[in-house]
Amino acid sequence: MDHVQRRARFPSFSVYLGYAVSAVTFGFGSLLLTGWLVNTRMPGQFRIMFGVVLVLMGVYRFVLTRTKIRQWQTGDDEDSEQRL
Q1: Does 3 map to a domain?
Q2: Is residue 41 part of a domain?
Q3: Are 62 and 27 in contact (CB under 8 A)?
Q4: Residue 19 falls within a domain, yes or no?
Q5: Which of 25, 34, 47, 78 has its CA 20 to 30 A from that of 72?
Q6: Where are the beta strands (DSSP E) in the chain?
Q7: How far apart are CA 58 and CA 64, in angstroms?
Q8: Residue 42, φ and ψ in degrees, nearest 5
Q9: Nearest by Cα to 27 from 57, 63, 66, 4
Q10: pLDDT of 2-23, one tens digit each?
Q11: DSSP label at residue 42
């Protein structure tokens, strides 16, 4: 008998965690850029630089999570085609 490795339909916990980390990182970066999370002693250039880095990290995490979902879905489709 062929050993068939079964995967879950959807990697739910890691996907939800990826989206949550993306949203929190993007949110904090946006709040820093708008000035809501600002210490009065923080230099303006540092605030803007750190805010941009956090926003870009949030976008990167979002894209990475979307790519992971697409790879997971196409991997399931390829497995079902090979079994036929």
Answers
A1: no
A2: yes
A3: no
A4: yes
A5: 25
A6: none
A7: 10
A8: -80, 130
A9: 57
A10: 555 555 566 688 889 999 999 9
A11: S
